[in-house]
Amino acid sequence: MDVHHLGRRICEEIADVLSAVDERSAERLIEAVLAARRVFLAGLGRSGWVARCLAMRLMHLDRTVHVVGDATTPKIERDDLLLVCSGSGETPTILGVLDAARRVGATVAVVTACPDSTAARQANLVVHLPAPTPKARQASGSVSIQPMGSLFEQSLLVFGDALVMRLADRLGQNHQDMWQRHANLE
User: Fold this and answer.
1) Apex CA 25: angle with CA 50 and CA 145, to 5°?
2) Which of 20, 48, 103, 168 sits between 20 and 30 A of 180, alpha carbons compared?
3) pLDDT, tens digit, 9 for 90 and up, residues 3-53
4) How many Cβ atoms sit within 10 Å of the Cβ of residue 35?
């Protein structure tokens, strides 16, 4: 298959995943972001990089945002939101972060391909992106033409951008408002 055909197939897979997302769970996540004093994002590997993309856009919406593991990340507190991005929902480091947030009473949201995972069971709210990650493949039998967790990570990126667009609308902000907060130390 050529690159054009593969690209179309990848886009179709992402569209299929996003069309299966429960809109009520996405709305609950939007409400949690709006209600939080600060939003902390956590993820590892490629999911972690996508979490950073979402953190950047939330900052462009004038939210106070931190990425777990950065040197400048403060302690999480009761009125904060921890947003975990984890395909498997079983990464030990992520489970430790989730547990620490729960101990202080912070709200925990998980975006995952595995709604029956440990992280999902311990969260206050879950958004299920039904992408066939290696663990999710075993449970559902679904497959992707892509390797490993690529479909989850791509779907997470597009879901995050759609979430930001919904948040911008709710906050009465437009693209120009967001550009005003773009980094100027580049």
Assistant:
1) 50
2) 48
3) 999 999 999 999 999 999 999 999 999 999 999 999 999 999 999 999 999
4) 10
Q: Where would I find the H helices in the chain?
A: 3-19, 23-35, 45-60, 92-103, 118-122, 134-140, 150-171, 175-179
Q: Which residues contact 7 (CB under 8 A, 6 or more apart)?
A: none
Which of 18-32, 49-63, 136-150 is the least confident region? 136-150
The token pair at 184 is 């100027």
CA dihedral 170, 176, 180, 186 (to 10 degrees): 120
Residue 153 among the catalytic residues: yes
Catalytically annotated residue among 27, 31, 153, 186:
153
User: Domain residue spans in the chain?
Assistant: 3-179
CATH number at 3-179: 3.40.50.10490
pTM of the model: 0.94
